[in-house]
Design a protein that fits this description.
The structure holds 2 protein chains of 2 kinds. By secondary structure, chain A is an alpha/beta fold. Chain A has a single domain (24-280), classed as 3-Layer(aba) Sandwich (Rossmann fold). Chain A has helices at residues 62-69, 92-99, 117-121, 123-127, 132-145, 161-173, 191-208, 219-227, 265-269, 274-280; strands at residues 24-32, 37-46, 51-55, 77-82, 85-86, 102-105, 179-183, 212-215, 228-231, 236-239, 249-255, 258-263. In chain A, helix 5 (132-145) crosses helix 6 (161-173) and helix 6 runs parallel beside helix 7. Chain A is globular. Chain B is mainly alpha-helical. Chain B folds into 2 domains: 8-20 and 39-59, no CATH class; 93-323, no CATH class. Chain B is built from 9 helices and no strands. Chain B has helices at 6-22, 32-96, 105-142, 151-189, 192-198, 203-241, 246-255, 259-285, 290-323. In chain B, helix 4 packs antiparallel against helix 6, helix 4 (151-189) packs across helix 7 and helix 6 (203-241) packs across helix 7. Classes of the chains: A alpha/beta, B mainly alpha. The interface between A and B is medium-sized, with 23 and 13 residues.
């Protein structure tokens, strides 16, 4: 894939509201639905250019945490800051403007079944009444980036699971967001397709350096992201030299609604926390 | 809070008495009559304790049963109040969205096509049949009084004032409230609504507001169609089956129509359109529990919308009749 030809639109201009501090910041966030707490006293931050991988077994509250990040859910307690703005109690109407600066890839893609791939990817642009020619050009670039040029006129039900995830990534990337949120982008996919998706995420990370928060329970995906980089010359992902890891890719781990680990890959594999050891094994 | 069981305290007293008895001097030191008495007491006391324990257990069961019933009533009442509150806020916001940008005008046209044009066939068919049935039934009854000439008046007034709006409301609700609930419900369970919010688009503005206004507008016109079809159906039955004069039928149908009848017939669909669409969207948007939840929402939407339409029809009729009391 030719990276230079993909996404030729200008890089996003940082909004005046953006602070030099963390892009996302959680402080003592707790959330309870009916029953025991889903998240308890969660504190962490995502710095500009940083990729944070949120690990944990299924049903531990990872997706909930991701939805809290862009205000799709509200915490019971604590503070969440997105681009420097407190969003815990922000009205929904104000959140819509803030969410335009983020891109989110949902667990199953969450594509609109009744719209074509073109209209799905261009959803935000259509709402903003961008000219059709401009929409077509940008959609083709986004689809080229994820390697799905031929799906322009297809409807989502005719795509495979992996293709739907890639279309969802294209939709999240089309406006070049300042923060990317990936909710189990490889969940339920075969290893080859998973690697394709991880390659796209690594490419996005290394080409655009956008901060991101990625939720997964697949260790191999997390380790691949940390030990590989995108090579523009080959258009693919290559391993970093042995012993090297991407310094901007770090890990969080959730267990029973609590954040039990926050650190680098080296710290993760040498952690003495019993749950982390058990999870890694 | 600690719960008190009055019967239990009596049992405790009795138990204490039994313990005291068991610690009293041995029986062989007593007289034979006293011994017999003591023996009987020894039998009676445990029996009394057992029966009291059983009574107490029953009392506890009954008490906890009452408590459970109260809790159920409490939960149900709270659920109903919260649902009404949620619905009121939802419906009000959806209605007010028309007065603040962004307004998705193309979606209004798309929904008008789906709701209005899509429901045309069922409204025409049900209108024709209902008018025909009305003419058949009324002619049979009116002939007993030699008043078959007023069949036209009977059919037109019944269709325009009552059956046209209610029938259209219920038919369109069966078709569209269910469709709205299942469509939006599916979008909720597949995270499409969350995706829409994440893409910076308000689902209430994009999905609900166009459906509500389109339903109101379309039900207004569909009711007119149903009224016209009902009168035509009645006319066809009158002429071809009852062998009466068609001119007389239509003349009676037209001449006895008054302004309040038309107003009654055309005000109702505005309310019914609002009810069926807001209820359909409301149940769709609060769907939970996967595909089963979608089915549940659809049923709830249709049942609630249909019942509400009939109930609100009663209220509106009452209000309008009192408003136009002088005209009638």
């Amino acid at each position: 894939m030719d990276v230079n030809s993909a996404f030729t639109q200008p890089a996003p201009v940082p909004s005046p509201a953006e602070e030099p501090g963390p892009v996302v910041s959680f402080r003592n966030v707790s959330l309870t639905f009916a029953g025991p707490p889903v998240l308890q006293d969660i504190s962490f931050s995502v710095a500009p250019g940083e990729t944070r991988i949120l690990l944990g077994p299924a049903g531990v509250g990872k997706s909930v945490l991701l939805k809290l990040t862009n205000g799709l859910l509200r915490p019971d307690e604590g503070s969440i800051r997105l681009f420097g703005e407190e969003i815990s109690h922000m009205p929904e109407q104000s959140l819509f403007a803030l969410r335009l600066r983020t891109g989110m890839v949902f667990q199953e893609g969450a594509l609109f079944d009744s719209l074509t791939v073109r209209d799905n990817v261009a959803y935000q642009l259509i709402q903003e009444q961008v000219a059709d020619e401009e929409i077509d050009r940008r959609v083709r670039e986004a689809l080229h980036f994820v390697g799905l040029d031929e799906t322009f006129k297809f409807f989502p039900p005719s795509l495979s699971g992996g293709m739907r995830r890639r279309v969802a990534i294209a939709r999240a990337l089309i406006r070049q967001p300042e923060l990317l949120l990936y909710d189990s982008p490889t969940g339920g996919l075969d290893p080859v397709t998973s690697t394709t998706i991880i390659e796209l995420i690594v490419k996005q990370r290394d080409v655009y350096h956008s901060p991101s928060l990625l939720v997964t329970h697949r260790l191999q995906d997390a380790f691949t992201m940390c030990t590989h980089r995108f090579d523009a010359a080959t258009g693919g992902m290559i391993s970093l030299p042995k012993g090297q890891t991407d310094p901007n890719t770090t890990f969080l781990m959730l267990s029973e609604g609590r954040l039990i680990f926050d650190g680098s890959l080296h710290e993760l594999v040498h952690s003495q926390i019993p749950f982390v050891r058990e999870f890694l094994q | 809070m600690a719960k008190s069981y009055p019967l239990m305290s009596h049992i405790d007293t009795l138990l204490q008495f039994h313990i005291m008895c068991s610690h009293s001097p041995p029986l062989w030191n007593s007289s034979p009559s006293k011994r017999r008495e003591k023996c009987l007491e020894g039998i009676r006391a445990p029996c009394a304790i057992l029966s009291l324990r059983a009574a107490a257990a029953l009392s506890c069961i009954s008490w906890s049963g009452d408590q459970m019933a109260l809790e159920t009533i409490d939960k149900t009442a709270k659920y109903i109040v919260l649902t009404v509150q949620d619905y009121s806020l939802f419906a009000w916001r959806a209605l007010m969205n028309l007065f603040h940008p962004p307004i998705y005008w193309p979606d209004f046209l798309i929904q008008s096509d789906i709701i209005g044009v899509g429901s045309l066939s069922i409204v025409v068919l049900s209108g024709l049949s209902t008018g025909g049935v009305l003419a058949l039934q009324s002619a049979a009854t009116l002939s007993a009084f030699g008043a078959t000439a007023v069949t036209g008046q009977f059919v037109s007034l019944t269709m325009i004032r009552e059956l046209g709006p209610v029938l259209t409301g219920v038919m369109v609700s069966g078709r569209n409230a269910s469709s709205m609930a299942s469509e939006l419900g599916s979008m909720v369970v597949t995270e499409q609504i969350d995706a829409m919010r994440a893409l910076g688009v308000d689902p209430l503005r994009k999905l609900v507001t166009p459906r509500i206004y389109s339903s109101i507008a379309m039900l207004f016109f569909l009711t007119i169609v149903a009224d016209a079809c009902g009168i035509l159906g009645g006319g066809a039955v009158t002429v071809f089956m009852n062998n009466q004069n068609g001119t007389q039928y239509f003349a009676m149908a037209w001449e006895h129509l008054r302004f309040p009848d038309i107003v009654q017939g055309l005000v109702k669909p505005l309310f019914f359109g609002y009810i069926l669409s807001s209820i359909g969207c409301f149940y769709g948007m609060r769907t939970s529990g996967g595909t089963q939840g979608v089915g549940r929402s659809t049923i709830q939407a249709v049942v609630t919308a249909s019942v509400l339409i009939i109930f609100v029809d009663f209220l509106i009729t009452q209000v309008l009749l009192s408003l136009f009391a002088g005209w009638m």
